[in-house]
Amino acid sequence: MHYMHSNATSDSKDEYITKISSGQLRYLSINASNVDIQVCGDHALVLGHLRAEVVSDGKPRILDCKFIAVWSFEGETWRFKAFAPTPIPTVT
């Protein structure tokens, strides 16, 4: 699994789990909308809009981004492979 963050840093599965379990990264709320799932054989692309409240390294943040997630069907189950968000620019 490869998890790209909205600040362009990335984590492996183990790194991401460590950040969550240590409290370094906490999700307070997550809302996905306008989700579109495209199945292509043994793979699926999930596209949508994500808004989340997080605390990262002790600092609160609001995330507002478009995302793509990649899933693969392996054996008898779907496995999460990658996530990549693109922040939506703030209009001023």
From TrEMBL:
Keywords associated with the record: Isomerase
Q: Which InterPro entries match?
A: DUF4440 (IPR027843), NTF2-like_dom_sf (IPR032710)
The Swiss-Prot or TrEMBL record annotates one GO molecular function as: isomerase activity
UniProt domain DUF4440: residue ranges: 3-79
Entry coiled-coil feature ranges: none
Question: Would you tell me the protein name for this molecule?
Answer: Ketosteroid isomerase-like protein
Q: Whose protein is this, by species?
A: Sphingopyxis panaciterrulae
